[in-house]
Amino acid sequence: MKKTKTLMSDLKSRYADKSWNETVQLVRRCMEKTKGDGRVCEPIAQCLQKINEALNVSSLTAMVSRLEMIAKQRGLASHMSPTETVCYLTADLFYLEVVLLPGGRVEDVRVAHHGEAPVSSPSLLQLLRMKKFQEFSLKLDDLASFYIIPGDSDVKTKIYTCLRHLETDLFKISHLPRSLRESDLHVDLIMNGRIGNVQPGKEGTPLTIEYYISPSDVLIRLSNTGEVSVGQMALVTVGSSDASHTLQRASLISSPPQVDSFGFPVFQPLTESCSELLPATFLLKLQPPLPMLMSFIEKMGKITDGVIAEKPQQVEPLPQLLLNTSKTLSSKISWTDGVQFVVPLPVSEYHSYVFSGAVWGRESWKGALIHTVPFTHPGHVPALLDLLRHQSAINLLLASCFSNHSQLIDAGLLYDLRCEILPESDHCLSVTFSLDDNNHLAVLQVTVVDSHQMSCRLLMPDFVDHKLDDYISRVLTRCMSIPITMRAIRRKVASQTTTPVPAADPESSAAMESDIIRAVHPSASVSHEAVEDESVVSPSGHHLMSVAAPVADNANTDAVANRSPCASLAVCLH
């Protein structure tokens, strides 16, 4: 320490009479020099990095120096072209070309994947032109993370080739004809497409699948809030594995595709000529990560023939996982015994929802936060997506009963409706409540059959109406909100018992959709042009053929037999 202080004192006295510009030029000249042996003292390297980040990039040399530093930070190699006009940042499976101009300006940034031609990246170019080097570095890190593949360069190349053939087959599956369930083609593609809404990789990002979107997000897109709603996504990548797995090294779907009686493609067997044993698996990288019940995680393992992610480190009750991962709720809020969630609804209506900690803490309702889903075959993906959608639907229903407003149960506050949520099985729950001044309890049994089918049964003393059960099921399926559904039940029962009914009509789709929007975003409003006023009915059958991208050569575009004959044909342009 004494030696360092002496050195700093000598430096200060030596350069005391120098101007600031001279000192900066000296620092730049020193930074441009490189040591021959390549060994760098860590504290000095950190100091150089901080100085480099602080200096303004106003020359070609400074820009190259900054790019080289970023490459080293992200584990990439770097070199200049013979003409010294292009800086290359390289990895085993991709590289970047940064085309430079005099003065350190950037003309273009191109990304090239293994075996492919370089493609310009406007987003990376914009970051460098704006000199947002930290954001550029993070983008590089994201790009590199998609190719964390074990083995030497030859093995990495083989695994990457397998990934490209998988992407080809996923696109073939997405182009197969299917039935249309939703009137909104975009929503139908996300929720009911065999592979969801598939978007090809661009600018260094992998193939992306949008597999679930909530009704509130759909309605926000139709509202005038200006917000952009995005559903749940999965990135298709590869990852290392302790065990070796047989991966395809060719397309497994013939041209034209042959389909079975359910409309799914017939895959060619994984023989030695079209597959290889490699230390990796394909991955669905979930964005955001999804809270999943352990029983659903086990089901994923059965779909993938035993290929499962590492055993979760932390297992918690599903309600706690939902609170921990919510963007709008505080994870510090307690959901256990003695606390009720106060859910405000439009027209000054308030419900309270209670979760019994002892019951929800049972093993059958414990789960984990899933970040990645490993698999080895394109045929696994449709079934995995259905399971992810099913879990997402359960999560959405439970989350609709949470709010940032919580009170002790004995706080003495009055509510329009008090409800207790209890689990029945891994896809069934019940809502116990009492309507108005009625001393008798009622129970709503909810079965989440799958992501687009809810089955409800209302149990009330001296009250049986099977048509009402069907109505409740359709309302819940449409809004995916327990509070909105309980509001509709309360009004419907009141109308059948000659009690004065509130002004709003619960059978009006516009009224219900407005309720959903205002419950999630109180300041939002729904345009009457965007939402049609129609009864809550199940959508009619249609036939859908995706034309998102050019169909593979000789692809089968004939409609498959549909067990529910459809009345119309819809062509989805997305």
TrEMBL record:
GO terms for biological process: cellular response to thyroid hormone stimulus; positive regulation of transcription by RNA polymerase II. It holds the Pfam family Med1. GO terms for molecular function: nuclear retinoic acid receptor binding; nuclear thyroid hormone receptor binding; nuclear vitamin D receptor binding; transcription coregulator activity. It comes from the Eukaryota. Its main location: nucleus. It is found in: Nucleus. Residues 46-403 form the Mediator complex subunit Med1 domain. Keywords: Activator, Nucleus, Transcription, Transcription regulation. One of its GO terms (cellular component) is mediator complex. InterPro entries: Mediator_complex_subunit_1, Mediator_Med1. Component of the Mediator complex, a coactivator involved in the regulated transcription of nearly all RNA polymerase II-dependent genes. Mediator functions as a bridge to convey information from gene-specific regulatory proteins to the basal RNA polymerase II transcription machinery. Mediator is recruited to promoters by direct interactions with regulatory proteins and serves as a scaffold for the assembly of a functional preinitiation complex with RNA polymerase II and the general transcription factors. Belongs to the Mediator complex subunit 1 family. This is Mediator of RNA polymerase II transcription subunit 1. It comes from Sinocyclocheilus grahami.
